[in-house]
Write a structure and sequence with these properties.
Blueprint (H helix, E strand, L loop, with lengths): L5 H13 L1 H7 L8 E6 L2 E6 L5 E7 L2 E6 L3 H25 L18 H4 L3 H30 L1
Helix pairs in contact: 1-5
């Protein structure tokens, strides 16, 4: 898997947010304008206009290869779920051998999301994720504007 610097992804997101009006006016919406490409460190970032999926495309010996850029949050949540499952299995194994769990550690809390997230609905989680992304995007655009004003 190709590692993409966070700065490259931030720049791509900024370009995508700041320039959609110009890009839409330049070409009619049709099958040929589905993908938008941006140069990034010897490769290209490809934005799928329909799904919003971002891929990194680079040249290899066999030709060009585009790989989806992983979403950090989904990867973290998958790893947390895997670790929680491992933790529950280990606790059950300890109990099966007739040993007691350390103080403050119960079997009932070993699986599933943390207590704060149990009562939270999917919509609330989605809204909080979108809110965090929006705040980072606004901060990034503000920083780019400041940089552009300094250069002028």
């Amino acid at each position: 898997m190709i590692k993409v610097a966070p700065l490259v992804l931030a720049a791509a997101a900024c370009v995508l947010i700041c320039c959609p009006a110009g890009a839409q006016g330049a070409a009619p919406e049709n099958e040929d304008s589905r993908f938008t490409f941006y140069r990034a460190e010897g490769a290209f970032l490809r934005l799928d206009g329909r799904s919003g999926q971002v891929s990194i495309c680079s040249k290899h010996q066999a030709g060009w290869l585009c790989e989806a850029v992983p979403e950090e949050r989904a990867a973290f949540e998958a790893e947390i779920a895997r670790l929680q499952g491992d933790n529950a299995a280990l606790k059950k194994l300890v109990l099966a051998h007739g040993l007691r769990l350390p103080a403050g550690m119960g079997l009932e809390a070993s699986g599933g999301p943390p207590p704060s997230a149990r009562g939270e609905s999917k919509v609330d989680r989605i809204v909080s994720v979108i809110d965090g992304v929006w705040r980072r995007l606004v901060a990034m655009v503000t920083g780019v504007q400041r940089d552009l004003l300094r250069r002028s």
